[in-house]
């Protein structure tokens, strides 16, 4: 049981800015055995968003609430996923020559390029619109579940990915994402969806996310020969948008 809580807290330390000021066991087996905690972290972020919605749904316009729902998770995660999609778009689209090594070098550069700015603005804008639609349609479960589903998508991606770099934070997940971990994460996801009364919608969304993850993984293989921490962050953002789009489509 000690290792169980250690591993969950380890993922919170790595994936969020939640202040867990503890020295935890941080070996590969801890990442491997706790990989399912991706969806638990997603559930935590979803609960925060759902709480914000409940507090303000009768006092603020839906578009303002949606703005908070976009911003708060970025603050809680330190913007890691936003950084990932920005760096990925800079590396993939801003340079046409030099091959894999040059693209990865651009992705590591701390400077922000035009494509990064475009990607981040578009990503946040789309989320604002889609979350507003869910609030207007009273599909409050979606405000919670899209966070869980996107992290499940990252796990799918890590499972089928190969390393684009010899060293990097992303390798921790790529090398330690197991079929058992994914199975546990799927069970947790479906359990949460059942509590929310949205199991059918979730069962529809998961295969769509799988398909999109497979396409993006293939694109990463073509561009840089695999995946990195940045592309896994980009995967999270893509899966969030896919989940929200399908939720809104199913609700229409």
From TrEMBL:
Pfam families: CobS. It is found in: Cell membrane. NCBIfam families: cobS. Belongs to the CobS family. Its cofactor is Mg(2+). One of its GO terms (cellular component) is plasma membrane. Coiled coil: none annotated. GO terms for molecular function: adenosylcobinamide-GDP ribazoletransferase activity; cobalamin 5'-phosphate synthase activity. Pathway: Cofactor biosynthesis; adenosylcobalamin biosynthesis; adenosylcobalamin from cob(II)yrinate a,c-diamide: step 7/7. Its EC number is 2.7.8.26. It comes from Oceanirhabdus seepicola. Keywords: Cell membrane, Cobalamin biosynthesis, Magnesium, Membrane, Transferase, Transmembrane, Transmembrane helix. Its main location: membrane. Joins adenosylcobinamide-GDP and alpha-ribazole to generate adenosylcobalamin (Ado-cobalamin). Also synthesizes adenosylcobalamin 5'-phosphate from adenosylcobinamide-GDP and alpha-ribazole 5'-phosphate. This is Adenosylcobinamide-GDP ribazoletransferase. It is a multi-pass membrane protein. The keyword RNA-binding does not apply. The chain crosses the membrane at residues 35-56, 63-82, 112-131, 143-162, 182-215. It catalyses: alpha-ribazole + adenosylcob(III)inamide-GDP = adenosylcob(III)alamin + GMP + H(+); alpha-ribazole 5'-phosphate + adenosylcob(III)inamide-GDP = adenosylcob(III)alamin 5'-phosphate + GMP + H(+). GO terms for biological process: cobalamin biosynthetic process.
């Amino acid at each position: 049981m000690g290792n169980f809580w250690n591993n969950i807290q380890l993922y919170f330390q790595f994936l969020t800015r939640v202040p867990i000021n503890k020295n935890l066991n941080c070996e590969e087996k801890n990442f491997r055995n706790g990989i399912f905690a991706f969806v638990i972290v997603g559930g935590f972020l979803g609960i925060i968003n759902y709480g914000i919605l409940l507090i303000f749904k009768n006092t603020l316009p839906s578009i303002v609430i949606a703005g908070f729902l976009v911003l708060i998770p970025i603050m809680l995660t330190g913007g890691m996923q936003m950084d990932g999609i920005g760096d990925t778009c800079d590396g993939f689209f801003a340079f046409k020559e030099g091959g894999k090594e040059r693209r990865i070098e651009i992705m590591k550069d701390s400077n922000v390029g035009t494509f990064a700015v475009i990607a981040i603005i578009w990503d946040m804008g789309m989320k604002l619109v889609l979350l507003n639609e869910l609030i207007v349609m009273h599909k409050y479960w979606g405000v919670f579940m899209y966070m869980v589903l996107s992290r499940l998508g990252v796990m799918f991606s890590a499972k089928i990915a190969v390393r684009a770099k010899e060293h990097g934070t992303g390798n921790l997940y790529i090398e330690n994402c197991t079929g058992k971990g994914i199975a546990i994460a799927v069970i947790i996801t479906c359990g949460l969806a059942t509590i929310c009364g949205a199991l059918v919608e979730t069962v529809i969304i998961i295969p769509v996310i799988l398909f999109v993850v497979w396409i993006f993984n293939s694109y990463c293989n073509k561009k840089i020969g695999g995946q990195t921490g940045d592309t896994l962050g980009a995967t999270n953002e893509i899966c969030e948008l896919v989940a929200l789009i399908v939720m809104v489509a199913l609700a229409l």
